[in-house]
Amino acid sequence: MHPKMSVKLAGLVLRSPLIVASGVLGSSTRLIKKVSENPSVGAVVTKTVTYNPRPGYENPTAIDLGFGFLNAMGLPNPGYLEYRKELSEIKDLAIPLIVSIGPSNSEEAAEMVKALNDVSDGFELNLSCPHAEKLGLEVGSDPEKVRSIVSSARRCTTKPLFVKISPNVTDVVEIARAAVEAGVDAVTAINTMKSIAIDVNAGKPVLSNVYGGLSGKAIHPIAVRIVYELYEAIKIPIVGCGGVYDWRDAVELILAGATAVQIGSAIVYSRSDLNILNEIEKGIIEYLKDKGFNNVMEIVGLAHTS
Ligand code: SIN
Fold this sequence. Notes:
Elements: E1 7-9, E2 12-14, E3 18-20, H1 29-36, E4 43-49, E5 62-64, E6 69-71, H2 80-87, E7 97-101, H3 106-116, E8 122-126, H4 137-140, H5 143-156, E9 161-165, H6 172-181, E10 186-189, E11 193-195, E12 198-199, E13 204-205, E14 212-215, H7 220-233, E15 238-241, H8 247-256, E16 258-263, H9 265-269, H10 275-291
Bound molecules: succinic acid.
The site of succinic acid has 13 residues, from loops.
């Protein structure tokens, strides 16, 4: 028998635990539609939109380090009001559409959630971009700011609310607990690691912004550790994110405590070939069959009991 792959996550039912991460393929309505047609995709998270439009940083904005990507795009987006128009063109999506928003304070969070509520199935609060002034990590590293932004978003929607947290803090549990107390439904862990690469020939940093966020293979064990820690500390679902390239990486995060898993860099490495998601799902199914499980939910957090 084929093990059941659908998962319940924060009030949503996903046909698969695989979610396309923010910033990858969720940037245009055409791509979102294409992604939703792949049966291995359970949900898609849009690119992050902010209150005001942002042009993004100058090039170079990304570099492939071989063991992961270092990027600082600068959250380029047309602003939430313009993006609302784009999203309202999407009709009858077969999977939940989670809109990623990057507010810098509680007022912005309220305005954005209210405006985007009817064009989304849920929100992911990006409180973790490691290199944007007054946004992301600058607010997401302060538990009081996290509490105030999450409470404000919570008051404006009954839809599922996720918070994407950063590994660049001393105590991830403290940040996650602040979000839980303020009413978030699930925690996505993790966003990228703040990093720098230096071009030794030019003798200067590679990225125009100097600082960027490291994603991909290199951060996978950090994601596993943080999901594991959160699973022991909080009682709401966790979405694992960080360096999932194959089914083993996905299973590792699920065993650590993730109900679902986001895929980002691996899609970029595969040049947007969505077959990678089918391969990952196939591998998880084989693993479950091999181990005698009937349902992927049965292995969530299992590493804690063995
Ligand atoms: C970017 O747009 O530079 C990356 C976004 C993020 O790290 O959240």
